[in-house]
Amino acid sequence: MQSSVLSRFSHPLAWSPPGHILTHHLSTPPNHPSLTFRRRLQPVSAVASPPTPRLRRQMTHSMPPEKIEVFKSLESWASQWVLPLLKPVDQCWQPQDFLPDPTLPFDAFTDEVRTLRERTAGLPDEYFVVLVGDMITEDALPTYQTMINTLDGVRDETGASLCPWAVWTRSWTAEEKRHGDLLRTFLYLSGRVDMLMVEKTVQYLIGSGMDPGTENNPYLGFVYTSFQERATFISHGNTARLAKESGDPVLARICGTIASDEKRHENAYARIVEKLLEVDPSGAMIAISDMMRKKITMPAHLMYDGRDPKLFEHFSAVAQRLGVYTADDYADILEFLIGRWRLEKLEELNAEGRRAQDFVCGLAPRIRKLQERADERARKMEPHGASFSWIFNKEVALL
Ligand SMILES: [Fe+2]
Ligand SMILES: [Fe+2]
Q1: What is the tens place of the pLDDT at every residue in 175-224?
Q2: Which sites bind Fe cation 1 (predicted)?
Q3: Of the residues 115, 176, 222, 227, which has the maximum number of CB atoms within 10 A of its CB?
């Protein structure tokens, strides 16, 4: 199952009860079962949302300060090779290009909404679970811009910095903003989802943030974003395919158009890592290995709707079952990046770099083997489902 490979937070300890924080149990190790019990049943003091997740050990500023120079020295390269991968605003699509036109006379506008609803009628509820999860992931964009601006040497120091790294991050954010806006408005008009619960989930998620383990380190940060942009390219591509198969060509075009943005962004981030491999092969190779050891956590891994403490795990299971984003995709992305960055052929590595290379280049088959075993175990389990507040508490099969 996807979550077994991708999520570090699928364990019941991942969440404390909603609206509560924990007291410190200094004598109890963090994974001790009694703490689980206390967390779930004996909340001590109430605070405002969001709930407190269990995060990995937080490390900061792991890049040696002298390596900031690497990113300074690459500024003109970034202007020449990264910024052109942005699209000028007047050549970009906007959400309104795909949505009913509110400036039409009222009857014509409502006709367009009716047509939109007729087209979505063929899409099953489980599809909407995945589309909502994707939309919520996109809508937590403030978190991702924050994350990139934690990275030493490339952050936007002023909010309007002319440094090409900062220009990229702001313009990337501006392009990404259209994804959540478009999906959100589409879902609102479809009438198929409980927007109030969707909106609460977004608020919880942005309040919780994310824990990608990038340690203010742009080497780690750009490996993470390379992987993640490809993951979103794959998942939006699959929701496009499913929409087409279910008779909604407009939604297919929406998801496909978003996917093509993700591909362009993936290309930019992968190009940055490729350059780092050229100027600092061991440093970059070790960073790739470090991120893969930690596992790439999905950006919305802390999602919560105020009701289901395993919401992300359940959403991931539905995405896996529908083939929108699967453990196989995770291994495929890794193999793709190994090929894209020619990691197997990388030379001039120090001893640690070579160890990192061996680990990363042998990882995909190991992930697949683990997944086969997990699939086998899953086949022996009784089919079961989960209800999702996003679709009015209807139950959807997970297995
Ligand atoms: Fe996106
Ligand atoms: Fe993206």
Answers
A1: 999 999 999 999 999 999 999 999 999 999 999 999 999 999 999 999 99
A2: 138, 176, 179, 262
A3: 222
Ligand 2 center to residue 69 CA distance, Å? 27
Question: Which ligand is in closest contact with the Cα of 136?
Answer: 1
- Which ranges constitute the DSSP H helices of 246-387? 249-279, 281-294, 311-322, 327-340, 351-361, 363-379
Confidence of residue 51 (pLDDT cuts 50, 70, 90): low
Cβ-based neighbour number of residue 49 at 10 Å: 14
Unique residue bearing structure tokens 């999520």 = 7
Q: How far is the CA of 390 from the centre of ligand 1 (A)?
A: 20
Residue 309's contacts (CB-CB under 8 Å, 6 or more residues apart) are 12, 14, 15, 17, 18, 51
**d(CA 189, ligand 2 centre) in Å:** 24
CB 1 within 8 A of CB 320: yes
118 annotated to bind ligand: no
Closest listed residue to residue 53, CA positions, set 205, 156, 237: 205
Phi first, then psi, for residue 395 (nearest 5°) are -95, 145
Question: Please, which residues have CB within 8 angstroms of residue 125's CB and are 6 or more apart in sequence?
Answer: 192, 391, 394, 396
Residue 176 among known ligand-binding residues:
yes
**Proximal ligand: closest to the CA of 227:** 2
Helices 218-245 and 327-340, axial angle in degrees (round to 10): 130
The per-residue pLDDT for 50 is 55
229 an active-site residue? yes
Distance CA 334, CA 324 (A): 17
